[in-house]
Design goal:
homotetramer; 4-stranded antiparallel sheet; 14 helices; 341 residues
Chain lengths: 341, 341, 341, 341
């Protein structure tokens, strides 16, 4: 069935699969000590315009989030996130399992506001009992957010400035980073994101890879013995090449951007299809996830023809749904959707 | 360079790669809710002759060990292992990171002895202060062991009987299970292992897959909400199909055994090559890892020609080394080794 | 200086001190296996009218909360609390350190509402991605609350009914339980609380003891090997008698109630003093903590004469402060306060 | 019954009880911000001849061990201990519960040897796979040991030198420190111990207090926000004065030494009683724990008259038992024992 269920419905972008085939019989050392991993890390550092960036490849988003956060916080510190943040909602308590509280700020279409962060920090530092409270130790945000929205350069800079002032690392979850970078709405580049954050990750799983996220420490701030840290959490691939080969391909000849642009072009066309049929968005987004508002009554029949996710019930009559595009989405899929709408 | 460094030096067995190619564009749900994962689980349950076996796919060995152990122990319980057990030595403290002590027994060529286990349990239960001690909560063993040896059916049965008597689950780490099952020395079958253990895993990473281990709960004893448990530890693949497709191929037409037999045939030939040159083994093994004793003086020159691991210094003159075979090892590799020895 | 800073400003109620003196030279076994601990546990079970209640003595509130919660939750479960709950705000992240999320509900003068709890549970169970979310595993509430308020019998029963329906244990933090039980506003007795909850604790530290809280499992539901569980968390006293002797005295001849009534009488008189001077309360409470609203300008001079805590800034001109009474507060203290106001 | 069961069979030394009575009604702030805690900390720093020593009071030994160890190790590091070390045997897995492995060395009458430690460290640093192994991060030893023995100044210095060389903190568990300091066999003073270690604790519970251990960071190396760290583990007393008052008394006019000397005098007399009756020791010790070897056949009858612990079965006929003295032991207790032997 034609599916807009997520950006991880198919295998790998054909060029990544080809790279796996081409390198398959080359004997290499394990645990990331292979030439492909080294090459991928170097290409990513160059793309970030940060020669000293330290790049590690992990298998998925939750794993990357919990490792980055646990590596940077002291035990009694928490991570500040929008209340809709992935770490707060959809990771089965993975962050708390590492011992850390997620300190939440109100979400505005998936984004926290610098002024809310500032107010939280000022309140905390003014409290006479602060040693009995969880110390805000770092800030986590997603870009694009879980709701498909984007922080602008001004918004991200304001948050980064606060982090700097309060000596808190800023961590950006880029599970769908590519879709943000090529969004018609974006005013941030990869090197800018690398400079504004202390650590961030470049999503592979949702941007064409079978698996894999590239975690980047941008300020020569990767903790010592990080390989042991990862191994201890069961997150070290014996065949580290699996991520290395794929990311090497993603960062060769701009494939990461090419994949992202394809998905964005189709997402924009998808929006046009819904708009032409008279449907609104909640909110309107400019990345690869779009959120049309549909009459509740039409959804069951539509779901028999195409796959998509229910997102939120607005009221008895209207439901927000989610449609997602990726490298594997085709114009034919959209033609079909148009025909059944 | 010709490499006998490990059984994870190359990518995937070509048939697994082909399966990934063939299924690549088939849109499926994520998180293991795809048809390939379902099919692989069913084939494994059948191969175990246990229709009610519950099968979950995880990315690597340490991850699988820590999840299985943490899922089955109460917080104040520990896992009993041979002191050479992987969980005790080579996982950067992953088990302790889950909060559990590894209680060790002496290793006899990598194996614990049932009589030592019995003595430990009797001593523990006779101690007046036992509530202040770590309670032996389960038993962990590897098959084949880290030293390439195998528990016999009698040995495994004796341990399983003790586990049963003391109500402790028996967990078998089968990272290299295939090599044990087809070993000339083995007297255990997959269904027998499934029946004797409470939980075990079938290694994929070291037996031809890019990644993946199949964790099998054999007694309808998989903990409730196990998906949340896995997700919380960052171990749930978004593209669960990655493991599903590979294990489906491994358990189609006996490929898992075919791969293992290839490696064992070459390991036996490798032993013959060393034996013919007059080298002994320490110990002699019958799986895909062999441990020749070489004069220390010859090792540096040999390492310039082929890759292998140093294992243990016997004395100033003699060093035990490790040579490993796998699906990617060829007779040509062995011809070359023979020529340079 | 005369102090209304908290209910733990002095040592122990003289009768507890006398009991420690009287029993001091009696040789007893350690770790709670002494006759005083046994006697205290028995008296508490009787006071609860639950002969099968299982009573354990721990040193303080945070320790008791983290042990009770960690003992009852599975790793991926969280504890539901009002957002003002002590476990959510003032325990330096102790609950998260055990690996569990605190799931918050809005606070209404320190209390959660059954309807909000119901809505949270219904939303969770209706979510298609619930396995990726933290499972509500138990409910935590304080009685009296951190804000000095009390759940009525109807309110507590409504919450207990929901807990029962959703199979979630209900845990009541009674750090100041005595002050609730004798409050003019209370309509709940100790046996009723014991019956409505699955586990609760009777606070000693804030009700006359040097240290100690009595944790009560009410439904024969204390986890197995609970002594090991406690020992593993560093919470087992070698001289368990320290708590045993004090609680034995507290539950002899109604001393626990007598101490509480004394504090409540003085708190009511304190309210009258403030009311007579024209000050309002925010909110008005009927336990041993009262919250007058004072002009910000008068606070510095007042604090030079008596000790009390700043609670919350209402606006630029008005600040809520907290005055607390206990067994050690005297009418003379109040006379003095009246004279300086 | 006359009891030699442990050094925590009675309440508090009368002078400590008197100090609690004397200070009972003095209103003080909570959480260790009282004048008695400040005074006790100052006296201990002076007794250590280390004005910058940072002193914190905790309730018991296991709690102190787990907090000190968890505060100083990174997650993938372990603590090195003799295999008989309290943290390895009798804390229900408290150290592993904080996530850290206890790396064991052979015990020689309860002590590790510097040469064994050196060999362990050299082996670890020579291993090519060390990043997959638990990193030795600190050293733990007890003084006196669990078996009543003492490291000499030369032995402790050799271990401290290795720790220094390998940049590992040295932690000394002084649950029974006083008994070591006044032992006829000791050649170490409190200031020497303070200088040789990075962190150690002065036991109160077993040396006359109701509860309490004084944790001393000796090199201005107490972790930041240590109060939050302690609070998060449920180890912060609301009435911090409970420990403060007792330790203030213990370190006034040499009471800590006086208590210890009393116990040692009686222990030496106890040894003489057993020696006179022809019993040997296993091993002979010079602290407040003595270990006579008794005929197994005589033990049941003796246990009906005096309390003591069974320690170890030497063979079918002989059992090592433990007799312990403390401030509460009297010459009359020994006269009685002598009469029944």
């Amino acid at each position: 069935m034609v599916s807009f269920e997520s950006d991880y419905i198919c295998g790998a972008h054909p060029k990544l699969l080809q790279a796996l085939i081409d390198t398959n019989m080359d004997a290499q050392s394990g645990y990331g000590f292979d030439c492909y991993t080294a090459s991928a890390a170097k290409k990513i550092a160059e793309a970030c315009e940060l020669p000293e960036a330290q790049v590690t490849f992990l298998s998925g988003g939750t794993q990357t989030n919990l490792i980055a956060i646990d590596a940077l916080l002291r035990s009694y510190e928490g991570v500040v996130a929008a209340e809709t943040g992935h770490v707060n909602v959809h990771e089965s308590g993975a962050i708390e399992h590492t011992g850390h509280k997620v300190l939440t700020l109100p979400s505005h279409d998936g984004k926290m506001r610098a002024e809310d962060l500032k107010a939280m920090l000022e309140k905390y530092y003014a409290d006479e009992t602060l040693e009995h409270m969880v110390r805000p130790g770092m800030v986590y945000l997603t870009w694009p957010t879980e709701q498909g929205t984007l922080y602008s350069k001004a918004e991200l800079t304001a948050i980064a400035d606060l982090c700097h002032q309060y000596k808190m690392p800023l961590f950006l979850d880029g599970a769908r980073l590519g879709y943000g970078l090529v969004s018609p709405q974006a005013d941030l580049t990869l090197p800018e994101i690398a400079r504004l954050t202390d650590v961030f990750y470049i999503g592979g799983t949702k941007v064409g890879a079978l698996c894999g996220e590239a975690l980047v420490f941008t300020k020569n701030n990767q903790p010592e013995h990080f390989l042991s840290f990862i191994k201890q959490r069961g997150a070290l691939y014996a065949k580290g090449r699996l991520c290395g080969v794929q990311f090497d391909a993603l960062f060769t000849d701009g494939l990461y951007y090419e994949i992202s642009r394809h998905a964005i072009r189709l997402a924009e066309r998808l929006k046009q299809i819904f708009r032409d049929k008279g449907y609104a968005f909640h909110p309107e987004t400019y990345t690869n996830q779009i959120f049309p508002v549909l009459p509740a009554a039409m959804i069951p029949a539509l779901r028999e023809k195409v796959r998509f996710e229910l997102w939120e019930k607005l009221d008895e009559e209207r439901t927000v749904v989610r449609f997602v595009t990726s490298w594997s989405t085709t114009d034919a899929d959209l033609d079909y959707l148009e025909s059944v709408l």
